[in-house]
Automatic annotation (TrEMBL):
Cross-referenced InterPro entries: DHquinase_II, DHquinase_II_CS, DHquinase_II_sf
Name used for this protein in its record: 3-dehydroquinate dehydratase
EC supergroup of this enzyme: lyase
Its job: Catalyzes a trans-dehydration via an enolate intermediate.
UniProt organism field: Rhizobium mongolense subsp. loessense
Length: 149
């Protein structure tokens, strides 16, 4: 059973409460339950984290270097600002899928650039919280095939 890290950035702890017209009504606990269900169906386990602190996300990426087979990351606001998270992801040699609940390209111009995308093997944007399930499936597929695309 491979371990997939699911990492969430700032303000995602308010999912379901903050701007539901953009992010929906599901909570982060709902997202975690869905991720665990999909990962289990595919024979994998997940380690699910959320932080409003950049350094904690970086520490979890470093932790994943030791025991993770893949990372699904929604860096939230750090998407557009964090070279440090990009640098940490560049040390991780397994698959990385970037997820955004909203379609960032239909939003403010500053949201159109992602530092994380420079490392991601795939990007899912605008599919709501269901995007996490697609990301878990893609990471699992890449783990199984042993390739990164």
């Amino acid at each position: 059973m491979s371990l997939i890290y699911v990492l969430n950035g700032p303000n995602l702890n308010l999912l379901g409460k903050r701007q539901p017209h953009i992010y929906g009504h599901e909570t982060l606990a709902d997202v975690e339950a869905d991720c665990r269900r999909v990962a289990s169906e595919l024979g994998h386990d997940i380690r699910f984290h959320q932080s409003n602190r950049e350094y904690e996300i970086i520490d979890w990426i470093h932790e994943a270097r030791e025991d993770g087979a893949g990372i699904v990351i929604n860096p939230a606001g750090f998407t557009h600002t964090s070279v440090a998270i990009l640098d940490a992801l560049n040390t991780f040699e397994q698959p990385v899928i970037e997820v955004h609940i909203s379609n960032v390209h239909k939003r403010e111009a500053f949201r159109h650039h992602s530092f994380v995308s420079h490392r991601a093997d795939g990007i899912i944007s605008g599919l709501g919280t269901e995007g996490y399930q697609f990301a878990i499936r893609r990471v699992a597929s890449l783990i199984t095939s042993g390739e990164k695309k």
